[in-house]
Amino acid sequence: MLFEVWAPYARERVELELEGARHPLERDPLREGWWTTTVGGDNGVPDGARYGFALDGGPVLPDPRSRRQPDGPDGLSAVVDHAAHVWRHRPPRRGLREAVLYELHVGTYTPEGTLDAAAGRLGHLVELGVTHVELMPLCPFPGRHGWGYEGVSLWAVHEPYGGPEALRRFVDTAHGLGLGVVLDVVHNHLGPSGNYLPAFGPYFTDTHHTPWGAAVNLDAPGSDEVRAFLLGSALAWLRDYRIDGLRLDAVHALADNRALTFLEELSAAVDELSAEQDRGHFLIAESDLCDPRTTTPREAGGLGLHAQWNDDFHHALHTALTGESQGYYADFAREPLAALARTLQQVFFHSGTYSTFRGRTHGRPVDLDTTPAHRFLGYAQTHDQIGNRAQGDRLAASLSPGLLACAATLVLTGPSTPMLFMGEEWGAGTPWQFFTDHTDAELAEAVRRGRRREFAAHGWAEEDVPDPQDPATRDRSCLDWSEPGREPHARLLAWYRRLIALRAGQPDLTDPDLAAIRVAYDEEARWIAYRRGDVRVAVNLADRPVRVPLGRDHLRVLAAWEPVAVPEDGGELVVPAESCVVLADQ
What we know:
By secondary structure, the protein is an alpha/beta fold. It is built from 15 helices and 27 strands. The mean pLDDT is 95.
Protein backbone atom coordinates (compact mmCIF):
# COMPACT_ATOMS: atom_id res chain seq x y z
CA MET A 1 0.00 0.00 0.00
CA LEU A 2 1.25 3.47 -0.90
CA PHE A 3 1.66 5.96 1.93
CA GLU A 4 2.47 9.53 0.99
CA VAL A 5 2.48 12.91 2.67
CA TRP A 6 3.18 16.48 1.63
CA ALA A 7 5.68 17.66 4.24
CA PRO A 8 7.92 20.41 2.82
CA TYR A 9 8.82 21.49 6.35
CA ALA A 10 10.59 18.18 6.99
CA ARG A 11 14.31 18.91 6.69
CA GLU A 12 15.97 15.49 6.72
CA ARG A 13 13.54 12.61 7.09
CA VAL A 14 9.95 11.49 7.39
CA GLU A 15 8.99 8.16 8.94
CA LEU A 16 5.76 6.22 8.80
CA GLU A 17 4.69 4.51 12.01
CA LEU A 18 2.31 1.69 11.09
CA GLU A 19 0.98 -0.61 13.79
CA GLY A 20 4.01 0.19 15.95
CA ALA A 21 6.66 -0.39 13.24
CA ARG A 22 8.70 2.41 11.64
CA HIS A 23 9.20 2.74 7.88
CA PRO A 24 11.32 5.49 6.26
CA LEU A 25 9.82 7.55 3.45
CA GLU A 26 11.76 8.88 0.47
CA ARG A 27 11.49 12.21 -1.25
CA ASP A 28 9.39 12.09 -4.41
CA PRO A 29 11.71 13.33 -7.19
CA LEU A 30 8.76 14.54 -9.29
CA ARG A 31 6.74 16.36 -6.64
CA GLU A 32 8.43 18.92 -4.46
CA GLY A 33 7.74 18.48 -0.77
CA TRP A 34 6.21 15.00 -1.12
CA TRP A 35 7.48 11.88 0.67
CA THR A 36 6.38 8.32 -0.20
CA THR A 37 6.79 4.67 0.73
CA THR A 38 5.05 1.40 -0.07
CA VAL A 39 4.25 -1.06 2.74
CA GLY A 40 2.44 -4.36 2.87
CA GLY A 41 3.30 -5.94 -0.46
CA ASP A 42 0.65 -8.11 -2.11
CA ASN A 43 -1.31 -8.54 1.11
CA GLY A 44 -1.82 -4.81 1.51
CA VAL A 45 -2.57 -3.17 4.84
CA PRO A 46 -5.70 -4.18 6.74
CA ASP A 47 -8.62 -1.81 7.11
CA GLY A 48 -8.37 0.01 10.44
CA ALA A 49 -4.58 -0.27 10.78
CA ARG A 50 -3.28 2.69 12.84
CA TYR A 51 -0.56 4.92 11.45
CA GLY A 52 1.00 8.36 11.55
CA PHE A 53 4.01 10.33 10.35
CA ALA A 54 7.07 11.53 12.28
CA LEU A 55 9.02 14.48 10.88
CA ASP A 56 12.74 14.75 11.65
CA GLY A 57 12.47 12.47 14.67
CA GLY A 58 9.57 14.40 16.20
CA PRO A 59 6.33 12.99 17.59
CA VAL A 60 4.08 10.80 15.47
CA LEU A 61 1.34 12.98 13.99
CA PRO A 62 -1.92 12.06 12.25
CA ASP A 63 -2.02 12.07 8.45
CA PRO A 64 -3.22 15.45 7.09
CA ARG A 65 -5.31 13.41 4.62
CA SER A 66 -6.50 10.96 7.25
CA ARG A 67 -9.68 9.10 6.30
CA ARG A 68 -10.37 8.13 9.90
CA GLN A 69 -9.41 9.34 13.38
CA PRO A 70 -10.64 6.57 15.73
CA ASP A 71 -9.28 8.34 18.83
CA GLY A 72 -10.10 11.90 17.83
CA PRO A 73 -8.00 14.66 16.24
CA ASP A 74 -5.01 14.02 18.52
CA GLY A 75 -4.81 10.28 17.89
CA LEU A 76 -3.29 8.19 15.13
CA SER A 77 -4.96 7.86 11.77
CA ALA A 78 -6.51 4.63 10.52
CA VAL A 79 -6.56 3.01 7.08
CA VAL A 80 -9.99 3.04 5.39
CA ASP A 81 -10.80 0.75 2.47
CA HIS A 82 -13.57 2.62 0.65
CA ALA A 83 -13.67 0.04 -2.14
CA ALA A 84 -14.77 -2.69 0.27
CA HIS A 85 -18.17 -1.08 0.88
CA VAL A 86 -21.08 -2.56 -1.09
CA TRP A 87 -23.66 0.09 -1.94
CA ARG A 88 -27.29 -1.01 -2.03
CA HIS A 89 -28.97 1.99 -3.65
CA ARG A 90 -28.29 4.29 -6.55
CA PRO A 91 -28.21 8.01 -5.76
CA PRO A 92 -31.37 9.82 -6.88
CA ARG A 93 -30.98 12.55 -9.49
CA ARG A 94 -32.67 15.51 -7.82
CA GLY A 95 -31.76 19.04 -8.85
CA LEU A 96 -32.07 22.30 -6.94
CA ARG A 97 -35.04 23.61 -8.93
CA GLU A 98 -37.41 21.11 -7.30
CA ALA A 99 -35.48 20.83 -4.03
CA VAL A 100 -36.57 21.42 -0.45
CA LEU A 101 -33.56 21.15 1.87
CA TYR A 102 -33.55 20.20 5.55
CA GLU A 103 -30.58 21.28 7.66
CA LEU A 104 -29.74 18.65 10.26
CA HIS A 105 -27.16 18.46 13.07
CA VAL A 106 -26.34 14.82 13.72
CA GLY A 107 -25.42 15.35 17.37
CA THR A 108 -28.80 16.82 18.36
CA TYR A 109 -31.25 15.42 15.81
CA THR A 110 -31.64 12.50 18.21
CA PRO A 111 -30.65 12.05 21.87
CA GLU A 112 -28.18 9.36 20.78
CA GLY A 113 -26.43 11.85 18.51
CA THR A 114 -25.19 9.36 15.92
CA LEU A 115 -25.54 8.90 12.17
CA ASP A 116 -27.26 5.57 12.64
CA ALA A 117 -29.83 7.10 14.99
CA ALA A 118 -30.39 9.95 12.52
CA ALA A 119 -30.85 7.44 9.71
CA GLY A 120 -33.59 5.81 11.77
CA ARG A 121 -35.53 9.09 11.66
CA LEU A 122 -35.27 9.69 7.92
CA GLY A 123 -38.78 8.32 7.39
CA HIS A 124 -40.08 11.48 9.05
CA LEU A 125 -38.39 13.55 6.34
CA VAL A 126 -39.86 11.41 3.58
CA GLU A 127 -43.34 11.98 5.02
CA LEU A 128 -42.58 15.69 5.35
CA GLY A 129 -41.73 15.79 1.65
CA VAL A 130 -38.23 17.30 1.70
CA THR A 131 -35.85 16.22 -1.03
CA HIS A 132 -32.39 16.69 0.52
CA VAL A 133 -30.87 16.34 3.97
CA GLU A 134 -28.14 18.92 4.61
CA LEU A 135 -25.79 17.58 7.28
CA MET A 136 -23.83 20.05 9.36
CA PRO A 137 -20.04 19.39 9.37
CA LEU A 138 -18.89 15.86 10.16
CA CYS A 139 -15.11 16.26 10.34
CA PRO A 140 -13.47 15.21 13.63
CA PHE A 141 -13.36 17.81 16.39
CA PRO A 142 -12.27 17.70 20.05
CA GLY A 143 -14.55 15.90 22.49
CA ARG A 144 -17.87 14.28 21.68
CA HIS A 145 -20.34 17.12 21.16
CA GLY A 146 -20.03 20.34 19.16
CA TRP A 147 -21.38 22.19 16.16
CA GLY A 148 -18.64 20.76 13.93
CA TYR A 149 -17.17 24.00 12.61
CA GLU A 150 -13.84 23.39 14.34
CA GLY A 151 -12.94 20.23 12.45
CA VAL A 152 -9.31 19.49 11.69
CA SER A 153 -9.21 16.31 9.57
CA LEU A 154 -11.03 17.38 6.43
CA TRP A 155 -11.18 13.89 4.93
CA ALA A 156 -12.51 12.02 8.00
CA VAL A 157 -15.81 11.53 9.86
CA HIS A 158 -16.24 12.37 13.55
CA GLU A 159 -15.88 9.05 15.35
CA PRO A 160 -18.59 9.61 18.03
CA TYR A 161 -21.06 10.02 15.15
CA GLY A 162 -20.10 6.54 13.94
CA GLY A 163 -17.11 7.17 11.68
CA PRO A 164 -16.85 6.41 7.94
CA GLU A 165 -19.02 3.28 7.88
CA ALA A 166 -21.89 5.04 9.64
CA LEU A 167 -21.82 7.85 7.08
CA ARG A 168 -21.96 5.36 4.24
CA ARG A 169 -24.92 3.63 5.91
CA PHE A 170 -26.66 6.97 6.37
CA VAL A 171 -26.17 8.03 2.75
CA ASP A 172 -27.23 4.63 1.44
CA THR A 173 -30.37 4.68 3.59
CA ALA A 174 -31.21 8.21 2.46
CA HIS A 175 -30.73 7.31 -1.19
CA GLY A 176 -32.91 4.25 -0.75
CA LEU A 177 -35.67 6.54 0.50
CA GLY A 178 -35.21 8.93 -2.43
CA LEU A 179 -33.46 11.61 -0.39
CA GLY A 180 -30.35 13.44 -1.55
CA VAL A 181 -27.59 14.24 0.95
CA VAL A 182 -25.74 17.55 1.20
CA LEU A 183 -22.72 18.01 3.48
CA ASP A 184 -21.59 21.26 5.07
CA VAL A 185 -17.81 21.62 4.65
CA VAL A 186 -15.51 24.24 6.16
CA HIS A 187 -12.56 25.46 4.10
CA ASN A 188 -12.11 28.94 5.57
CA HIS A 189 -10.52 27.84 8.85
CA LEU A 190 -9.66 24.77 10.91
CA GLY A 191 -10.04 24.18 14.61
CA PRO A 192 -7.18 25.27 16.84
CA SER A 193 -7.23 22.07 18.90
CA GLY A 194 -5.74 18.98 17.28
CA ASN A 195 -4.58 20.93 14.23
CA TYR A 196 -1.13 19.62 13.25
CA LEU A 197 -1.10 20.91 9.67
CA PRO A 198 1.36 23.76 10.41
CA ALA A 199 4.01 21.15 11.28
CA PHE A 200 3.85 19.70 7.76
CA GLY A 201 3.77 22.74 5.49
CA PRO A 202 2.43 26.22 4.74
CA TYR A 203 -1.23 25.36 5.11
CA PHE A 204 -1.80 28.80 6.63
CA THR A 205 -0.48 32.26 5.80
CA ASP A 206 -0.05 35.54 7.63
CA THR A 207 -0.63 37.35 4.35
CA HIS A 208 -4.30 37.54 5.33
CA HIS A 209 -6.03 37.46 8.68
CA THR A 210 -9.48 36.15 9.50
CA PRO A 211 -11.66 36.09 12.65
CA TRP A 212 -10.00 32.74 13.36
CA GLY A 213 -6.40 33.94 12.98
CA ALA A 214 -4.03 33.23 10.08
CA ALA A 215 -5.85 32.49 6.84
CA VAL A 216 -5.88 29.19 5.00
CA ASN A 217 -3.18 29.57 2.34
CA LEU A 218 -4.95 29.95 -0.99
CA ASP A 219 -2.62 32.43 -2.69
CA ALA A 220 0.78 32.59 -0.93
CA PRO A 221 3.81 30.36 -1.69
CA GLY A 222 2.88 26.70 -1.33
CA SER A 223 -0.80 27.39 -2.01
CA ASP A 224 -0.96 25.05 -5.02
CA GLU A 225 -0.71 22.07 -2.71
CA VAL A 226 -3.06 23.57 -0.11
CA ARG A 227 -5.69 24.11 -2.77
CA ALA A 228 -5.17 20.54 -4.01
CA PHE A 229 -5.63 19.37 -0.42
CA LEU A 230 -9.00 21.15 -0.14
CA LEU A 231 -10.12 20.09 -3.61
CA GLY A 232 -9.23 16.48 -2.87
CA SER A 233 -11.20 16.59 0.35
CA ALA A 234 -14.29 18.03 -1.34
CA LEU A 235 -14.22 15.48 -4.16
CA ALA A 236 -13.65 12.63 -1.71
CA TRP A 237 -17.00 13.33 -0.01
CA LEU A 238 -18.75 13.22 -3.38
CA ARG A 239 -16.87 10.19 -4.68
CA ASP A 240 -16.21 7.97 -1.66
CA TYR A 241 -19.43 8.66 0.25
CA ARG A 242 -21.74 9.43 -2.69
CA ILE A 243 -22.71 12.78 -1.19
CA ASP A 244 -24.88 14.70 -3.66
CA GLY A 245 -23.83 18.25 -2.89
CA LEU A 246 -21.70 20.40 -0.62
CA ARG A 247 -22.57 23.51 1.36
CA LEU A 248 -19.48 25.72 1.58
CA ASP A 249 -19.18 27.59 4.86
CA ALA A 250 -18.59 31.37 4.77
CA VAL A 251 -16.92 31.62 1.37
CA HIS A 252 -16.56 35.38 1.88
CA ALA A 253 -13.85 34.51 4.43
CA LEU A 254 -11.73 32.68 1.84
CA ALA A 255 -8.88 35.15 1.29
CA ASP A 256 -7.75 34.50 -2.28
CA ASN A 257 -6.13 37.01 -4.62
CA ARG A 258 -5.17 34.63 -7.40
CA ALA A 259 -6.51 35.20 -10.92
CA LEU A 260 -8.14 31.76 -10.89
CA THR A 261 -9.85 31.60 -7.52
CA PHE A 262 -10.13 28.46 -5.45
CA LEU A 263 -13.93 28.55 -5.72
CA GLU A 264 -13.77 28.57 -9.53
CA GLU A 265 -11.30 25.70 -9.42
CA LEU A 266 -13.58 23.79 -7.07
CA SER A 267 -16.71 24.36 -9.13
CA ALA A 268 -14.92 23.20 -12.30
CA ALA A 269 -13.66 20.05 -10.55
CA VAL A 270 -17.13 19.24 -9.19
CA ASP A 271 -18.76 19.77 -12.58
CA GLU A 272 -16.17 17.46 -14.14
CA LEU A 273 -16.81 14.76 -11.54
CA SER A 274 -20.55 15.16 -12.00
CA ALA A 275 -20.22 14.62 -15.76
CA GLU A 276 -17.89 11.68 -15.22
CA GLN A 277 -20.31 9.97 -12.83
CA ASP A 278 -23.49 11.14 -14.60
CA ARG A 279 -24.63 12.74 -11.34
CA GLY A 280 -26.13 16.10 -10.46
CA HIS A 281 -23.53 17.26 -7.93
CA PHE A 282 -23.90 20.85 -6.76
CA LEU A 283 -22.22 23.43 -4.55
CA ILE A 284 -24.12 25.81 -2.26
CA ALA A 285 -22.22 28.80 -0.88
CA GLU A 286 -22.78 30.65 2.34
CA SER A 287 -21.84 34.24 1.52
CA ASP A 288 -22.69 37.61 3.03
CA LEU A 289 -21.40 39.55 0.01
CA CYS A 290 -24.77 39.87 -1.77
CA ASP A 291 -22.82 39.28 -4.96
CA PRO A 292 -24.60 37.38 -7.77
CA ARG A 293 -21.21 36.58 -9.32
CA THR A 294 -20.95 33.81 -6.70
CA THR A 295 -23.49 31.77 -8.65
CA THR A 296 -22.94 33.22 -12.12
CA PRO A 297 -21.58 30.50 -14.46
CA ARG A 298 -17.81 30.52 -14.95
CA GLU A 299 -18.13 31.05 -18.68
CA ALA A 300 -20.03 34.28 -17.92
CA GLY A 301 -17.32 35.54 -15.57
CA GLY A 302 -18.70 34.19 -12.31
CA LEU A 303 -17.43 31.69 -9.75
CA GLY A 304 -19.75 28.96 -11.02
CA LEU A 305 -21.23 27.80 -7.73
CA HIS A 306 -24.70 26.41 -8.15
CA ALA A 307 -26.56 28.22 -5.37
CA GLN A 308 -26.06 30.41 -2.31
CA TRP A 309 -27.77 31.13 0.99
CA ASN A 310 -29.70 34.42 1.01
CA ASP A 311 -29.51 35.93 4.48
CA ASP A 312 -31.20 39.10 3.24
CA PHE A 313 -34.46 37.19 2.80
CA HIS A 314 -34.06 35.72 6.29
CA HIS A 315 -33.38 39.13 7.86
CA ALA A 316 -36.38 40.74 6.18
CA LEU A 317 -38.66 37.88 7.19
CA HIS A 318 -37.31 37.80 10.74
CA THR A 319 -37.86 41.50 11.32
CA ALA A 320 -41.36 41.33 9.81
CA LEU A 321 -42.25 38.47 12.17
CA THR A 322 -40.55 39.62 15.36
CA GLY A 323 -40.02 43.37 15.16
CA GLU A 324 -36.38 42.95 16.19
CA SER A 325 -34.13 45.75 14.99
CA GLN A 326 -30.72 45.27 16.61
CA GLY A 327 -27.45 44.79 14.74
CA TYR A 328 -27.77 43.73 11.11
CA TYR A 329 -31.57 43.71 11.39
CA ALA A 330 -31.66 47.53 11.59
CA ASP A 331 -31.83 48.21 7.84
CA PHE A 332 -34.60 45.66 7.36
CA ALA A 333 -36.65 46.72 10.38
CA ARG A 334 -37.35 50.27 9.19
CA GLU A 335 -39.92 48.95 6.68
CA PRO A 336 -39.92 45.17 7.10
CA LEU A 337 -42.74 44.41 4.65
CA ALA A 338 -41.06 46.53 1.99
CA ALA A 339 -37.78 44.73 2.70
CA LEU A 340 -39.50 41.37 2.42
CA ALA A 341 -41.14 42.35 -0.85
CA ARG A 342 -37.78 43.51 -2.18
CA THR A 343 -36.09 40.19 -1.38
CA LEU A 344 -38.97 38.22 -2.93
CA GLN A 345 -38.70 40.19 -6.15
CA GLN A 346 -35.02 41.14 -6.37
CA VAL A 347 -33.33 38.49 -4.14
CA PHE A 348 -30.97 40.83 -2.27
CA PHE A 349 -32.10 43.74 -0.11
CA HIS A 350 -28.59 45.16 -0.34
CA SER A 351 -27.88 45.48 -4.05
CA GLY A 352 -25.61 48.51 -4.03
CA THR A 353 -27.56 50.16 -1.21
CA TYR A 354 -26.24 51.65 2.02
CA SER A 355 -25.85 49.26 4.95
CA THR A 356 -25.88 50.98 8.33
CA PHE A 357 -24.52 47.81 9.95
CA ARG A 358 -21.45 47.94 7.70
CA GLY A 359 -21.28 51.73 7.40
CA ARG A 360 -21.00 51.56 3.59
CA THR A 361 -22.85 50.56 0.44
CA HIS A 362 -23.15 46.84 -0.02
CA GLY A 363 -24.11 44.28 -2.64
CA ARG A 364 -24.81 44.13 -6.36
CA PRO A 365 -28.14 43.68 -8.23
CA VAL A 366 -29.17 40.28 -9.52
CA ASP A 367 -29.96 40.08 -13.23
CA LEU A 368 -33.56 38.89 -12.92
CA ASP A 369 -33.85 38.04 -16.61
CA THR A 370 -30.94 35.58 -16.70
CA THR A 371 -30.61 34.24 -13.15
CA PRO A 372 -32.85 31.32 -12.13
CA ALA A 373 -34.58 31.64 -8.77
CA HIS A 374 -33.35 28.28 -7.48
CA ARG A 375 -29.79 29.62 -7.29
CA PHE A 376 -30.78 31.26 -3.98
CA LEU A 377 -31.87 29.53 -0.80
CA GLY A 378 -34.63 31.03 1.33
CA TYR A 379 -35.24 30.16 4.97
CA ALA A 380 -36.83 31.41 8.18
CA GLN A 381 -34.36 29.68 10.50
CA THR A 382 -30.86 28.17 10.31
CA HIS A 383 -28.30 26.85 12.77
CA ASP A 384 -26.56 30.25 12.66
CA GLN A 385 -29.60 32.42 13.14
CA ILE A 386 -30.83 30.34 16.10
CA GLY A 387 -27.62 29.12 17.70
CA ASN A 388 -25.90 32.48 17.61
CA ARG A 389 -28.61 34.03 19.75
CA ALA A 390 -27.69 34.23 23.42
CA GLN A 391 -30.14 31.52 24.48
CA GLY A 392 -30.50 29.69 21.19
CA ASP A 393 -34.23 30.44 21.06
CA ARG A 394 -36.17 29.42 17.99
CA LEU A 395 -38.99 31.45 16.45
CA ALA A 396 -41.43 29.11 18.20
CA ALA A 397 -40.30 30.51 21.56
CA SER A 398 -41.90 33.87 20.86
CA LEU A 399 -44.31 33.53 17.93
CA SER A 400 -47.82 32.12 17.71
CA PRO A 401 -48.52 28.99 15.64
CA GLY A 402 -50.23 31.29 13.12
CA LEU A 403 -47.13 33.39 12.60
CA LEU A 404 -45.01 30.25 12.32
CA ALA A 405 -47.41 29.08 9.61
CA CYS A 406 -46.99 32.43 7.86
CA ALA A 407 -43.20 32.05 7.95
CA ALA A 408 -43.48 28.56 6.47
CA THR A 409 -45.74 29.84 3.70
CA LEU A 410 -43.36 32.62 2.70
CA VAL A 411 -40.43 30.17 2.57
CA LEU A 412 -42.17 27.26 0.86
CA THR A 413 -44.17 29.18 -1.75
CA GLY A 414 -41.52 31.83 -2.45
CA PRO A 415 -39.23 31.85 -5.48
CA SER A 416 -36.05 30.64 -3.72
CA THR A 417 -35.07 27.05 -3.02
CA PRO A 418 -36.54 26.47 0.46
CA MET A 419 -34.48 25.24 3.39
CA LEU A 420 -35.77 24.23 6.83
CA PHE A 421 -33.86 23.81 10.08
CA MET A 422 -34.53 20.58 11.92
CA GLY A 423 -37.59 20.73 14.15
CA GLU A 424 -39.01 23.95 12.74
CA GLU A 425 -41.64 21.94 10.86
CA TRP A 426 -43.43 21.23 14.12
CA GLY A 427 -42.44 24.41 15.96
CA ALA A 428 -39.96 22.60 18.21
CA GLY A 429 -40.04 23.84 21.79
CA THR A 430 -36.41 22.91 22.36
CA PRO A 431 -33.76 25.62 21.89
CA TRP A 432 -30.66 25.08 19.79
CA GLN A 433 -27.78 26.55 21.74
CA PHE A 434 -24.07 26.95 21.19
CA PHE A 435 -22.23 24.02 22.78
CA THR A 436 -18.67 22.68 22.81
CA ASP A 437 -16.73 19.85 24.39
CA HIS A 438 -13.18 21.15 24.23
CA THR A 439 -10.64 18.86 25.87
CA ASP A 440 -8.16 21.73 26.21
CA ALA A 441 -9.07 23.44 29.51
CA GLU A 442 -7.62 26.82 28.48
CA LEU A 443 -9.46 26.82 25.17
CA ALA A 444 -12.69 25.77 26.88
CA GLU A 445 -12.44 28.66 29.33
CA ALA A 446 -11.58 31.11 26.55
CA VAL A 447 -14.68 30.06 24.60
CA ARG A 448 -16.84 30.33 27.72
CA ARG A 449 -15.56 33.82 28.57
CA GLY A 450 -15.77 34.99 24.96
CA ARG A 451 -19.37 33.87 24.63
CA ARG A 452 -20.42 35.69 27.79
CA ARG A 453 -18.46 38.81 26.89
CA GLU A 454 -20.04 38.93 23.44
CA PHE A 455 -23.59 38.92 24.76
CA ALA A 456 -22.85 41.12 27.77
CA ALA A 457 -22.18 43.86 25.21
CA HIS A 458 -25.81 43.45 24.09
CA GLY A 459 -27.24 43.66 27.60
CA TRP A 460 -27.40 39.98 28.57
CA ALA A 461 -26.60 39.03 32.15
CA GLU A 462 -23.69 36.58 32.39
CA GLU A 463 -25.80 33.98 34.20
CA ASP A 464 -28.36 34.03 31.37
CA VAL A 465 -25.85 32.93 28.72
CA PRO A 466 -25.63 29.10 28.65
CA ASP A 467 -22.20 27.61 29.37
CA PRO A 468 -21.08 26.01 26.07
CA GLN A 469 -19.04 23.40 27.95
CA ASP A 470 -21.90 22.27 30.21
CA PRO A 471 -23.24 18.94 28.84
CA ALA A 472 -26.73 20.15 29.71
CA THR A 473 -26.43 22.83 27.01
CA ARG A 474 -26.16 20.16 24.34
CA ASP A 475 -28.84 18.02 25.96
CA ARG A 476 -31.32 20.92 25.95
CA SER A 477 -30.66 21.33 22.22
CA CYS A 478 -31.74 17.80 21.27
CA LEU A 479 -35.08 17.51 19.51
CA ASP A 480 -38.00 16.17 21.52
CA TRP A 481 -39.54 13.57 19.24
CA SER A 482 -42.71 13.34 21.34
CA GLU A 483 -43.72 16.85 20.22
CA PRO A 484 -44.84 16.13 16.62
CA GLY A 485 -47.62 13.88 17.91
CA ARG A 486 -49.32 16.51 20.07
CA GLU A 487 -50.79 19.97 19.62
CA PRO A 488 -50.00 22.64 18.66
CA HIS A 489 -47.05 20.93 16.97
CA ALA A 490 -49.10 18.40 15.00
CA ARG A 491 -51.15 21.08 13.26
CA LEU A 492 -48.06 23.02 12.21
CA LEU A 493 -46.40 19.83 10.95
CA ALA A 494 -49.48 19.09 8.82
CA TRP A 495 -49.24 22.62 7.40
CA TYR A 496 -45.60 22.14 6.40
CA ARG A 497 -46.48 18.84 4.73
CA ARG A 498 -49.33 20.50 2.86
CA LEU A 499 -47.15 23.36 1.62
CA ILE A 500 -44.33 21.07 0.50
CA ALA A 501 -46.83 18.90 -1.37
CA LEU A 502 -48.23 22.01 -3.04
CA ARG A 503 -44.75 23.07 -4.08
CA ALA A 504 -44.16 19.66 -5.64
CA GLY A 505 -47.54 19.63 -7.37
CA GLN A 506 -47.80 23.22 -8.63
CA PRO A 507 -45.25 23.93 -11.39
CA ASP A 508 -45.68 27.69 -10.87
CA LEU A 509 -44.13 27.34 -7.40
CA THR A 510 -40.87 26.07 -8.88
CA ASP A 511 -40.82 28.47 -11.82
CA PRO A 512 -37.23 29.80 -12.02
CA ASP A 513 -38.29 33.11 -13.60
CA LEU A 514 -37.49 35.79 -11.01
CA ALA A 515 -38.81 38.54 -13.26
CA ALA A 516 -42.29 37.02 -13.29
CA ILE A 517 -43.12 37.35 -9.59
CA ARG A 518 -45.48 40.17 -8.61
CA VAL A 519 -45.71 41.43 -5.01
CA ALA A 520 -48.07 43.80 -3.16
CA TYR A 521 -48.02 44.75 0.50
CA ASP A 522 -49.35 47.17 3.09
CA GLU A 523 -46.74 48.14 5.67
CA GLU A 524 -49.23 49.58 8.13
CA ALA A 525 -51.83 46.82 7.81
CA ARG A 526 -49.02 44.18 7.89
CA TRP A 527 -50.04 42.04 4.95
CA ILE A 528 -48.09 40.89 1.91
CA ALA A 529 -49.34 39.07 -1.18
CA TYR A 530 -47.69 37.80 -4.33
CA ARG A 531 -48.48 36.01 -7.56
CA ARG A 532 -46.48 33.23 -9.15
CA GLY A 533 -48.16 32.29 -12.42
CA ASP A 534 -51.66 31.08 -11.57
CA VAL A 535 -50.85 30.77 -7.87
CA ARG A 536 -51.55 33.59 -5.41
CA VAL A 537 -50.36 33.79 -1.83
CA ALA A 538 -51.68 36.14 0.86
CA VAL A 539 -50.07 36.43 4.30
CA ASN A 540 -51.42 38.47 7.22
CA LEU A 541 -48.92 39.15 9.99
CA ALA A 542 -51.30 41.45 11.90
CA ASP A 543 -53.22 40.49 15.03
CA ARG A 544 -56.50 41.36 13.32
CA PRO A 545 -58.18 40.38 10.03
CA VAL A 546 -57.16 42.33 6.92
CA ARG A 547 -58.62 42.82 3.47
CA VAL A 548 -56.30 41.90 0.62
CA PRO A 549 -57.23 42.87 -2.96
CA LEU A 550 -56.88 39.85 -5.22
CA GLY A 551 -57.58 41.52 -8.56
CA ARG A 552 -58.85 38.22 -9.92
CA ASP A 553 -62.14 36.29 -10.08
CA HIS A 554 -62.78 32.56 -9.93
CA LEU A 555 -60.06 31.54 -7.51
CA ARG A 556 -59.95 28.38 -5.45
CA VAL A 557 -58.25 27.82 -2.12
CA LEU A 558 -55.36 25.36 -2.24
CA ALA A 559 -54.44 25.71 1.42
CA ALA A 560 -55.45 28.02 4.27
CA TRP A 561 -54.22 28.17 7.86
CA GLU A 562 -57.66 29.44 8.95
CA PRO A 563 -60.88 29.10 6.94
CA VAL A 564 -61.42 31.84 4.35
CA ALA A 565 -64.19 32.68 1.91
CA VAL A 566 -63.06 33.63 -1.58
CA PRO A 567 -65.00 36.70 -2.74
CA GLU A 568 -66.57 36.98 -6.15
CA ASP A 569 -66.34 39.81 -8.69
CA GLY A 570 -62.70 40.58 -7.95
CA GLY A 571 -63.41 41.63 -4.40
CA GLU A 572 -61.15 41.66 -1.41
CA LEU A 573 -60.05 38.52 0.39
CA VAL A 574 -60.50 38.70 4.16
CA VAL A 575 -57.48 36.99 5.72
CA PRO A 576 -57.86 36.15 9.42
CA ALA A 577 -55.36 37.43 11.97
CA GLU A 578 -51.90 35.82 11.83
CA SER A 579 -52.92 33.59 8.98
CA CYS A 580 -52.13 32.79 5.36
CA VAL A 581 -53.77 31.35 2.29
CA VAL A 582 -52.61 29.91 -1.03
CA LEU A 583 -54.99 30.17 -3.99
CA ALA A 584 -55.02 29.31 -7.67
CA ASP A 585 -57.10 30.02 -10.75
CA GLN A 586 -60.11 27.79 -11.29
